[in-house]
Amino acid sequence: MYYLRVLSALCLSLAMLCLPLTAAALDGVTVVLSEEGGAYAQVADKLRAVLSRNGGTVSLPVKVISLMEGASLRAEQGQVLVAVGTEAMDELAKKKLPQPILNVLVPRAAFEKTARQSGRLGDPRNFSAIYLDQPWARQFALIRHALPGRIKVGIMLAPNSSELATALSAAAKAAGFVAITETVDGEADLLPSLKRLLGECDVLLSVPDPLIYNRNTVQSILLTSYRHQVPLIGFSPSYVKAGAIAAVFSVPEQIGQQAAEVIQRLAADRRLSLPQPPRYFSVGVNAQVARSLGISLDDEASLNNKLKGASEGEP
């Protein structure tokens, strides 16, 4: 009888080691940073602050490690992993770990590509994300409130973006706009494509695609659109500072707050929330660019309030 009890206990222990988090208690969070410092660290700091707050919904220890340390991660019961940035996401995806993985500060297209390539696209409850991209409805709402009367929205897309183009056209139509897309086949084609597009649209909407919008191209895009007197809607504070007339974006602390809330729900529901856009956001405007273009623009607080009202019906 004694040996039977020992054998039963051993089998139970082994079974517990094999259980997914959905059937076990959550007792810690490991955050893997694509790069140390900057926005990546700000997300981690906010996540840790919320999850370690006394009196909070869930209090959990948060360990922050580098991308190099993340390469040596092993299966560990009761842990959830948070990948901050695309490099961390790709590293964790290829390791095939059983822990749930929440990816943040990643573009939706990059997340879906990695999920597809790693065979995890059909497992959103264990491989999920908070996208970097704002919902299209929110971006079109910004255009409506910041630039009323401008309905022809130009958008440059990378090759193989047919699904995105279809989604954009549908979202634009639903919001009362017309989406005019131009495919950019390579860096040499960027300015010719942009000039064609600027001849057809009255506002340019940028998307977080590094093949088109990067440190080597941003100044050329901004200057060319300015010379054509077409305002550009950016996707980050840095783009507004550089010359975009306005942008709606989520700062790292807002993403960290949302990530903490997803993990708190995971502790209660035993499964990750589905991939989702940012819940919290801010609006930035470049008043100097607006004046130079002869555009009367509401201030940031006013636009932010209008967009919050428009976002109440979003998932």
Which descriptors apply to this entry?
315 residues; alpha/beta; Rossmann fold; 2 domains; six-stranded mixed sheet; five-stranded parallel sheet; 11 strands; 17% strand; globular; disordered N terminus
CATH topology of the largest domain: Rossmann fold
CATH architecture descriptor name of the largest domain? 3-Layer(aba) Sandwich
Please report the number of helical segments: 13
Largest sheet at a glance?
6 strands, mixed
Beta content: 15-25%
Radius of gyration over alpha carbons?
A: 22 Å
The tally of domains stands at 2
Mean pLDDT: 90
Task: Report the order of strands and helices.
Answer: HEHEHEHEHEHEHEHEHEHEHEHH
Q: Could you say which overall geometry the principal axes of the C-alpha atoms support?
A: globular
Query: Can you give the helix content as a percent range?
Result: 40-55%
At the first level of CATH, what is the class of the largest domain?
A: Alpha Beta
| Weakly predicted, low-confidence segments | 1-23
Strand order of the largest sheet: 7-6-8-9-10-11
SSE-based structural type:
alpha/beta
Q: How many distinct beta strands?
A: 11
The CATH superfamily of the largest domain is identified as: Response regulator
Ends apart, CA distance between termini: 56 Å
